[in-house]
Structures are given as structure tokens and as C-alpha cells.
Amino acid sequence: MDQTDDVLSKAPLFAALNDEGANALRASITEIRLGRGQRLFAEGDAGDRLYVILSGKVKLTRTAVDGRENLLGVLGPGEMFGELSLFDPRPRTASAIAVTDVVLAGLGHDDLRPFLADRPEVAVHLLKALAQRLRRTNDVMADLVFTDVPGRVAKQLLDLAERFGKQGDDGLHVHHDLTQEELAQLVGASRETVNKALADFAGRGWLRIEAKAVVLVDVERMQKRAR
Ligand code: CMP
Q1: Any atom of ligand 1 within 6 Å of the Cβ of 53
Q2: Can you give the residue ranges of the Cyclic nucleotide-binding domain (predicted)?
Q3: Of all protein residues, whose CA lies closest to atom 5 belonging to ligand 1?
Q4: Is residue 187 located within the same domain as residue 174?
Q5: Per-residue pLDDT tens for 38-48?
Q6: Do 98 and 172 belong together in one domain?
Q7: Quick one: 160 and 69 in the same domain?
Q8: Does the Cβ of 74 fall within 6 Å of ligand 1?
Q9: Whole-number mean pLDDT of the chain?
């Protein structure tokens, strides 16, 4: 797993470990590869493993009884998921589906538990990641109540830009790899309303729309619109 060591060592789980600890944890890792669109697990499944993304992107979704989907988040390299059922051993709270081809490091909950008990610094890092997720979830909930759809679109694009953006001469390129439908599920609005907001931003010259990507041309205006 040499080429992926760098990603792993920056993940919250490993950041707190010294070399000896990191090597011990690495020994219990299994590598999993998924093709685009492949499902790793479904909401309601029993969960016995947490995952760190080594390359590619994974979406976490929940499905309503009428079949509508809500996208809780899109995660990329270095980010972790599947930890809720580690701390609270109950079924998976969301489905995990590959948005691109993906390579994952899987760690059994049973292999991890002794680390949490013996090395409080690992538990602290995991708690930090959980706290960040809770903060973000609270922000998303408040935005659903207080912020209009264009504001939420601007916010989500800025969040994706922070994690996946690459600065080019002509703007900040954000390859989110999401379809229009998935972007709408992430914003929590209809595809039509989200597309209208995107077209409006494009018309004002704040961004350019590309296939499964946007180029943010005027980040400052987007930040103002997201407030
Ligand atoms: P688990 O419940 O084991 O499996 C589904 C995973 O989705 C869950 O652990 C978390 O890692 C992840 N998850 C759940 N809710 C969110 C959220 N709001 N944002 C990002 N990830 C989430």
C-alpha cells in the first residue's frame, strides 16, 4: 500500500500515532476497491468496519420510504466514514456508494477497539472528527431552515471547493464528480431549483458549469451569497 501511505498518515485516525502505533494499525488494514456506482454497504446493514478513503470519492445517502434520496455528504481522500457503528454498535445510518472508482482502507471495529483503549490520543482524534461532523450537520440543518436554495448551492460548492478544488489560471476548478441530481440531493432541493441557481450564478459570471464540475471564477461573490 506504499502509494497510499501518505494519504493514510494524514487521516485523523493515524495522525495521532507514532510510527510503531501506525505500523501496528496498518497491519490490520484490508484494501477494498470499488467501481463507480458500486455500493459498499446499505443503510440498515450491520456494521463492523470503518473506512479511510485512499483515492476517489464516496457518497453517503439515506433513502426515504417514497424512494427520494438525501445526500449526507461526499467524502474524498483522507476522509473517514463508518465510525458511528464503532462507537454505537447499531446498524449503518447511511448507505455508502462510490461516486468514482475508489480505493479504501478498511479497519475492523474489533481491531480498532484495543487502540482506542490503549492510546487515548487516537480516541481524541476520532472524537474531533466526529465533533466536526456534528458541527457541519448543525450548519446544514440551520441552512435548510434559514437559507434560500441559491445560498445553499453557493455554500455546498464552496465546501466542495475547499476539499476538492484546484486553482487554475481561469479560476478554482472543482471536480465534484456529482450528477445534477446528486448535487440537488446534497443541497436538499429539486434539480430544477438547483439548476436555476447555478444558471443564475453562471449568468453573473461567478462560475462556469462543466460536466460533473464547476469552475469558481468569483469566490468572493459566492462567499457573500452563501452568508
Ligand atoms: P455508520 O453509521 O457506521 O455508516 C454510515 C456512515 O455514514 C456513518 O457511520 C458515518 O461515518 C457517515 N455519516 C453519517 N452521517 C453523516 C453526515 N451527516 N455527514 C457525513 N457522514 C455521515
Answers
A1: no
A2: 13-133
A3: 94
A4: yes
A5: 999 999 999 99
A6: no
A7: no
A8: no
A9: 91
Pocket test for ligand 1, best of 45, 63, 133 (most atoms within 8 A of CB): 133
Q: From the CA of 99, how far away is ligand 1's center (Å)?
A: 16
Q: What is the DSSP string of 65-88?
A: TTS-EEEEEEE-TT-EE--HHHHS
Per-residue confidence (pLDDT) for residue 146, from 0 to 100: 92
The dihedral region occupied by 217, where left means phi > 0, alpha psi between -120 and 50, and beta the remainder, is: alpha
Rounded to the nearest angstrom, the distance between the alpha carbon of 207 and the centre of ligand 1 is 30
135 & 152 share domain: no
Q: Do 164 and 178 sit in the same domain of this protein?
A: yes
Ligand 1 atom nearest residue 95's Cα: 5
Write the pLDDT tens digit of every residue in 14-54: 777 777 878 888 888 999 999 999 999 999 999 999 999 99
Please say if the pLDDT value at position 78 is more than 70: yes
Residues 112 and 194 placed together within one structural domain of the fold: no
Contact 81, 75 (CB under 8 A): yes
Question: Ligand 1 centre from 130 Cα, in Å?
Answer: 10
- CB 12, CB 79: distance < 8 Å: no
**Domain at 156, CATH number:** 1.10.10.10
Domain boundary pick from 144, 169, 191: 144
